[in-house]
Design goal:
Elements: H1 7-17, H2 22-29, H3 33-41, H4 61-69, H5 97-100, H6 103-113, H7 119-126, H8 130-137, H9 160-169, H10 177-185
């Protein structure tokens, strides 16, 4: 963090509670020295309540005392002891309600045409669970009599690039476009 939270309110507090110069306050709050002087004169920011940077951990008392002794030094922002936020991974993709019924059809197609794919890869491609994959494979799915093997790309459940990458990773060969068209013509 380079700038304090609420810089003008912080400047008001520093003016009222410390012996720092306008230049030191301006440098810390990233304001112009004339603006800090106008705040001190009451011309700017009248009515703004001061915001204590020591209480919220942006400055320490020792840092303020160090800079009060030497007007040429600059205030340094206190190091935060809070943990940094963690990068979130891309979560499961959203599949509209209208397409959720197509997942078993896509699973059946992948099981029929790409036996080399692991269940985890199918689950990631289609956005389903391993339990559902096993039920489609064993024909124990509640809707198994109506499941028809349909290409997951054309159902909009994954992209062709993702499908090709999963096939190559599983050790299969990339399906040439001609064969993709042939497998599409097999669809009802």
């Amino acid at each position: 963090m380079t700038q304090p939270l609420m810089p003008k309110a912080t400047a008001v507090w520093l003016i009222d509670n410390t012996a720092l110069t306008f230049e030191q306050i301006a440098a810390f709050c990233e304001l112009h020295a004339l603006e800090v002087q106008a705040i001190a004169d009451g011309e700017v920011s009248a009515g703004i309540q001061g915001f204590d940077p020591v209480l919220n951990g942006q400055l320490t008392r020792t840092e303020i005392e160090r800079c009060e002794k030497d007007p040429k030094t600059r205030l340094m922002m206190a190091k935060s002891t809070l943990p940094k936020p963690v990068e979130r991974t891309k979560g499961p993709k959203y599949v509209p309600v209208a397409k959720r019924g197509d997942k078993p059809d896509a699973i059946a197609w992948l099981l029929k045409h790409h036996e080399e794919l692991k269940d985890s890869q199918i689950a990631k491609l289609v956005g389903t669970t391993k339990d559902t994959i096993n039920k489609v494979r064993e024909r124990t799915h509640w809707n198994s009599q109506n499941i028809q093997a349909r290409h997951p790309v054309f159902l909009g459940l994954c992209t062709q690039r993702d499908l090709d990458a999963a096939i190559e990773k599983a050790g299969g060969t990339k399906v040439p476009p001609e064969q993709q068209l042939e497998s599409i013509s097999e669809l009802p």
